[in-house]
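A brief tutorial aside. Many learners find it easier to grasp structure tokens once they have seen a single protein encoded end to end. The record that follows does exactly this for ABC transporter permease. Read the sequence first, then the structure, and try to relate runs of similar tokens to stretches of the chain.
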Amino acid sequence: MITTFFNHELKSFWRSKNTGKSVAIKVVMGVLILILLLYVLAFGVFLDIILKKMFPAENLTVTFCGIILVYFLSDLLMRMQLQELPTLKVQPYLHLPVKRNSVVGYLALTSLLSFFNLWPIILFGPFILKVIVSAAGGGVAAVFMIAIIALAIFNNYLALYIKRKANLNGWIFLMAGGILALITCGDYLWHLYSFKSLSYLFFGNLILKPYLVALPLILAAGMFYINFYYLKGNLYLEELSSKKEAAKSSTEIPFLGRFGQVGDLVANEVKLILRNKRPRSALIMGLFFMFYGLIFYTNPKMGEGFKVFVGMFMTGIFIINYGQFMFSWQASHFDGILVSKVKFTDFLKAKYLLFTIVSTVAFILTTPYVYFGWRTVLIHFVMYLWNLGINTTIVLYFANRNYKRIDLSKGASFNWEGVGASQLLLSFPLILLPYLIYLPFKFLGYTDAGLAVLAVTGVVFIITRDFWIKKLEGDFYNKRYQIAEGFRNK
């Protein structure tokens, strides 16, 4: 049955309208991954030399045993962000005499076909062959390799389980990320324990007691069956939906309820972001960009002009990351939007409201940069107004020119789905416009006047927002059928 599923997947791929583009992307990605794995292999070959130089006073085997669990902690963090969920269109099989175990088993096994599972073998394999074999013998080396493979499988299924649960409740992903962050801080920031010592405690004893390899094998098998039974219990779409709370209004977010239909649309957008991987990645990346100022503000050589750039990105990164694919997020149900009773004016107002809320939160999160002076926060506020007035309008204008759909279930890493010429063109006005206004004043020595003009321009666009919404609405109606046709092409 697994062979049948695989053949069906191949036929689906080759019969797709975008086969040529998909093949080109896969070839490019394959080359990039191969190059990356070659670098990892080179690092693994010289790992003994690297560890010897980093820890000259320690025994090489002791050092190696101490870094393995540290690696797998970082591996789990990477998998949660970068590893894709294996997919199979199960609907065609649900009414056929196909065992559910076969469908679930195919999904579970295909998840092992990830370069993340090759990474530890390529990285640690050369060291085990060079050092562990000569120091402890081939039997111990084999046990080490089995333990490393088992831990890789455990991480594989743990990351997939977290991401599958997060598809039903976006807060689970944030909670898992927070727990991993606390675990990391407990070692490297608060020094409550040492992962290096825990790693040596297990792998050091593994040399003397090879039967301890049963522990990672049990963990890997246990995580596999947890995934297997979770998938089996949620195989049907109606079962997935039945586990959610029954029929609540989208305005269950009290703050949004006061905005009526617009608030209802924003609440739906928030759910879309939290329940799907790629839009959720845009939100998470926005949180990481809050630390962007530390790169520039701690460098005395960076002038005030850089603060304009940094302030715009920190308070508006969500507008840029999420907004450039504004209608593509709804590509799967865009035809339904066109024939729905929802006024497109309200649809656009919901986008403006969403951007206003997120950018306001982002500005508040940047206020600790007052450490670098009150003027820094002032520049952030100016660029906050600029983002709400100018950049929001620019992003929505270019959204009317993006005809490429996005699969919400796919991650953001190495994913160019939905990216087109409009994204390239969008970068020019977003980056250049504030400097076209600010730099002339700066060269004349009137930097305060330059900031004031930026702020006033942003406020004027905010006040005249209804006018720009009408313009965007008219532009949308001229292009709606082109957008819909583009979204239908899978």
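Self-check: The chain is about 75% helix and 0% strand. If you spotted this yourself, you are ready for the next section.
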